[in-house]
Amino acid sequence: MLKKQRIMSLKKHLYCLYLVVFAALSWAGCTSPETTAMPTLKDAYAGKFRIGTAMNTDQITGTDAASVAVIKEHFNSIVAENCMKSEILQPREGKFDFTLSDQFVEFGTANQQFIVGHTLVWHSQTPSWFFVGEDGRDVSREELIARMKHHITTVVGRYKGKVHAWDVVNEAFEDDGSYRKTKFFTIIGKEYIPLAFEFARTADPNAELYYNDYSMYHEGKRKAVIRLIEEMKSAGLRIDAVGMHGHYTLAYPSLNSFAQSIQQLGAAGVQVMVTELDISVIPSPYEMQGAEISTRFSYTPEKDPYTEGIPDSIAKLQTDRYKDFFKVCLQHQDVVSRITVWGVNDLQSWRNDWPIKGRTDYPLLFDRKNQPKPVMEELVRLASQYTVNPG
Ligand code: XIL
Asked: Residue 372 and residue 355: Cα distance in Å, rounded?
């Protein structure tokens, strides 16, 4: 009997040893692919929040098959990087071109992805005819409202029941919280924002509607956005979430301010999303660090230090940054509904050309050959440390 007990105990110890060794090998990635196949990013975060990416023209048309494979494997939400902006959808008044946007929506539908339309009202990438009358002068308030209504109604109506959510208004505030003096604002007044949301809701009552902006860590801007949410809610208007772009660097923004933005926006009664995440590793030429696309600086070689690749130390800093942002989102799963990265691989990122044209940056999760960076495995592992929030 005693001998049997000893054998049992030995067996138990051996089994435990096996488990420890197996776990260690898996951790180090030394076992066969069948036993350790890494979950995809979307699977790792399933039930926590959606994982999205922006799609460019080559991906939408299928020319870039390698990136398309990555999109299908790792992302359960997509947003159009450019093809749903008004300069593409309505380059001339009344002449809509849905060629690319139709393909984009078909792709998302075929792959059961959560499709986000970006963006209905924005001061950038809007064709100039939008604001100008036949006499070459600014159109009247009534005319601009009518044009905005026609654009929103046509676009949202076309994709009713297919596009699940819209970035209705993009970047309406300055960092100090004042209204950005766009043509929409100067001609219509601040009511252009609730009007745009209302036109979108009427065109598709079931679509989620978002306000999207950068630098939400500036207290002034954050307060202005919270005020907007409160005003819209008390007027009975629909606003489901606020998107924080997330065009970050290794230094900006601080994690505390990132977390604070999520908490305060969430407390205002909306979901919060990181909608355009990319983390630049090359020198930032300016202090303010927003994402105004017209901001431009001239190229100098010292501002482009990693043309041949990034040092391991920098790659590690970026991995840690990504993990830190994801960790904060995991800690706020109750309000965070999505993280979307702004593109698939480093080669395609707009950060190579903004705010300085022609640099070599490494801001995304996949390298120039579409290989997952080490950060991918770290993000998957990180997700497993957090249980799904029952709420
Ligand atoms: C960028 C695209 O990535 C570029 O290809 C384009 O040339 C300019 O716009 N904020 C936004 C996005 O809301 O639409 C912008 O996308 C990046 C900043």
From this structure: 26
User: CB of 324 within 8 A of CB of 304?
Assistant: no
Q: How far is the CA of 314 from the centre of ligand 1 (A)?
A: 25
pTM of the model: 0.91
Task: Determine the average pLDDT of the residues in 367-375.
Answer: 97
| Amino acid letter for position 353 | D
Any residues with CB less than 8 A from the CB of 9 and at least 6 apart, and which?
none
- Bridge partners (DSSP) of residue 278 are 247
213 phi and psi angles, rounded to 5 deg: -160, 165
- Whether the CB of 295 sits within 6 Å of ligand 1: no
Q: How far is the CA of 82 from the centre of ligand 1 (A)?
A: 7
Q: In this structure, which residue's CA is closest to atom 16 in ligand 1? A: 81
Question: Over the range 337-366, which residues count as b (16 or more CB within 10 Å of their CB) and which as e?
Answer: bbbbbbbbbbbbbbbbebbbeebbbbbbbb
pLDDT of amino acid 3:
42
Catalytic-residue membership of 287: no
Tokens 């990265």 belong to residue: 341
Identify the bridge partners of residue 77 per DSSP, sorted by sequence position.
52, 114
Please indicate whether residue 245, judged by its CB atom, sits closer than 6 Å to ligand 1. Answer: yes
Nearest 10 degrees: CA dihedral of 120, 121, 126, 131?
A: 130
The secondary structure of 146-179 as a DSSP string is HHHHHHHHHHHHHTTTTS-EEEEEE--B-TTSSB
276 a catalytic residue: yes
Q: What is the pLDDT of residues 205-264, one digit of tens each?
A: 999 999 999 999 999 999 999 999 999 999 999 999 999 999 999 999 999 999 999 999
pLDDT digits (tens, 9 = 90+) for 81-124: 999 999 999 999 999 999 999 999 999 999 999 999 999 999 99
Q: What is the C-alpha to C-alpha distance for residues 282 and 88, in angstroms, rounded to an integer?
A: 30
Between residues 390 and 174, which one has the greater pLDDT? Answer: 174
Locate the ligand 1 atom nearest the alpha carbon of residue 214 and give its number. Answer: 10
* Residue 293 Cβ < 6 Å to ligand 1: yes
Query: From ligand 1's centre to the CA of 80, what distance in Å?
Result: 10
Q: Please give the C-alpha separations between residue 29 and each of 22, 25, 105, 369, in angstroms, as whole numbers.
A: 10, 6, 37, 21
Q: In the structure encoding, which two tokens stand for residue 123, read together?
A: 């001061």
